[in-house]
Amino acid sequence: MKTAIVGINWGDEGKGRMVDLLSRDYDIICRYQGGNNAGHTIKNDKGKFILNLLPSAITREGKVNLLGAGMVIDAEYLVKEIQGLISQGIEITPENLKISDKAHVCLPYHVRQDILEEERLKDKKFGSTRRGIAPCYSDKYMKKGVQMADLLDINYLREIVPAFAQWKNLTLKGYGETTDAKKVLESLEKCAEFLTPFIVDSTEYLKEEIQKGKKILFEAQLGALRDIDYGIYPFTTSSHTLAAYAPIGSGVPFVKLDRVLGVMKAYSSCVGEGPFVVEMSDDEASKLREEGDEYGAATGRARRVGAFDIVASRYGILAQGATEIALTKLDILSYLDKIPVCVAYELDGKRINHFPTGPALFRAKPIFEFLDGFKCNISKCRKKEDLPKQALDYIEFIENAVNCPIKYVSVGPARDEYIKF
Ligand code: GDP
Questions:
Q1: Contact (Cβ atoms closer than 8 angstroms) between residue 195 and residue 78
Q2: Cα–Cα distance for residue pair 254/207, rounded to 1 Å
Q3: Please, which residues have CB within 8 angstroms of residue 215's CB and are 6 or more apart in sequence?
């Protein structure tokens, strides 16, 4: 069985908790793109963990977690994240954590370049998480990147890093800075010593495990609308958040997925800049943000919030090829008398049902319908029959509108706070 768990919207849909829940049925959990620019929050019997790089099953015993070939990994950050979890009592060894030798290393100068560029842009900034992700992916495509495999050969690192740093300085000088290749190397060498036991050829490793019949779960970061090609470019991330990329980004491009679980929240949230058609403002936004605790797990930034967006979600489901849906955080809507749902957009005076590309999205306006609120605490509900009629109506309305079966509804952040449909 090969399954991907992916985001349908702008990210922060609650993918981490779904991976945490479903990973019990899988043997290997792979992250296939991105870096420490997003955070998963998981709560279980072992405690509360914010994971930026490590797959969400890292706290489960007996599971292998893999950082895939399509990722960009800040080596220093990874070492700290591993050490932090170990200090929280989680066992991390080369048995349960593997890092693809093809993954790229996000270096200190990538982080600096990201920060300097956001500062230069001032109010025109993109809302980067400033973790060096875009510069690192850019360098990968410029063929001036460091792969995890390079960490296994210090002499080779000593050759390439000064050359790359010299090239990078052509850019950094424009911001009035330079990078010191020696310091970059020192840090890399230290990280290499720590990380070497974890580095594997993920293609060979996964191929063999699949042949043995092992079940693989692919875990995405962010959502469909942040995909570099299919998202709200340029307000996207620099990698492929789509399920179609999961096998490629993990190391097994020959694999076909059996199941794609799309995760979407019962309302919308969006971190950073860019078009966000359903955005609420003022008190309405503050109330939903507070109720939903909508602050970035990686950065603490207040998220922009809005009503559930059927137009965007339908597009996200299409792009992800989702075969089923998990609807999360339904409990958050319990304070509303009437629940707004964006059912279509108005673009240049016309009602549209498709998700526009490019600047048209800035001009699109939401068309709402309002459903009855359920006005009660549903966090103790564990069966479909426990839910009030209005909550069931809301779920059914969304399911019909997006035309994809909703199989899970979560009603609280803890592992067991969900209903299987
Ligand atoms: P991810 O990046 O898609 O995994 O999402 P995040 O971890 O950034 O955001 C999900 C947040 O919502 C986390 O803080 C979760 O603990 C929390 N959460 C997830 N599902 C539920 C739910 O059903 N109800 C409530 N109240 N919180 C939830």
A1: yes
A2: 9
A3: 1, 2, 3, 25, 26, 27, 28
Q: Closest Cα to residue 191, out of 151, 135, 225?
A: 151
The pLDDT value recorded for residue 351 is: 98
- Centroid of ligand 1 to alpha carbon of 162 (angstroms): 42
Give the residue among 346, 351, 333, 352 at the shortest CA–CA distance from 393: 333
- 297 alpha carbon, distance to own chain's centre: 11
Instruction: Report the distance separating Cα 179 and Cα 183, nearest Å.
Output: 8
Q: Cβ(136) to ligand 1 under 6 A? A: no
Pocket probe for ligand 1: among 329, 377, 381, the residue whose CB has the most ligand atoms within 8 Å is 329
Is 356 in a helix, a strand, or coil? coil
The band of 298, judged by pLDDT with boundaries at 50, 70 and 90, is: low
Are the C-beta atoms of residues 1 and 26 closer than 8 Å to each other? yes
- Give yes or no for a contact between 62 and 24, defined as CB atoms under 8 angstroms apart: no
Please list, in sequence order, all residues whose beta carbon lies within 8 angstroms of the beta carbon of residue 314, skipping any fewer than 6 positions away: 353, 355, 401, 402, 403
Distance CA 339, CA 369 (A): 8
- Is the peptide bond preceding residue 366 cis, with omega within 30 degrees of 0? no
Length of the chain, in residues? 421
Residue 129 has pLDDT above 70, yes or no: yes
**Kindly report the CA angle at 147 between 141 and 149, in degrees rounded to 5?**
150
Residue with token string 């600047």: 359
Is the C-beta atom of 5 inside 6 A of ligand 1?
no
Residue 189 DSSP code: H
Q: Is 17 in the pocket of ligand 1 (CB under 6 A)?
A: yes
| Beta strand segments in 248-349, E | 259-265, 268-270, 304-306, 308-309, 324-328, 338-347
- Alpha carbon of 72 to ligand 1 centroid (Å): 24
- What pTM does this model have? 0.94
Residue with tokens 């922009």: 304
